[in-house]
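pls design
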C-alpha cells in the first residue's frame, strides 16, 4: 500500500469510527475503527501525525461511554 493509499485508508477508518459514534454503535466497534487507523498509520510511518487525532477520539469515546447516549437530532 502506497502512502497516499494509506492516508485514504486512515481517513476512511476515522470517518467510519466517527459515523459509528454518531449512530450509537457499540463502543467496541468504534474503538476498533480508531485502532485500525492507528495501526495503518504505524505501518506506514504516519503514527506521529495520526496518534493525536486517535487519542482525542478515544478520550471522547471513554467520556461518552460513561454517560448518556448521544442526543436525538433536532427536529426539522
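designed seq:
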Amino acid at each position: 500500500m502506497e502512502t497516499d493509499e494509506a492516508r485514504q485508508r486512515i481517513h476512511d477508518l476515522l470517518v467510519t469510527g466517527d459515523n459509528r459514534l454518531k449512530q450509537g454503535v457499540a463502543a467496541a466497534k468504534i474503538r476498533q475503527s480508531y485502532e485500525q487507523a492507528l495501526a495503518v498509520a504505524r505501518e506506514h510511518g504516519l503514527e506521529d501525525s495520526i496518534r493525536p487525532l486517535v487519542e482525542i477520539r478515544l478520550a471522547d469515546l471513554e467520556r461518552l461511554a460513561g454517560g448518556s447516549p448521544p442526543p436525538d437530532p433536532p427536529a426539522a
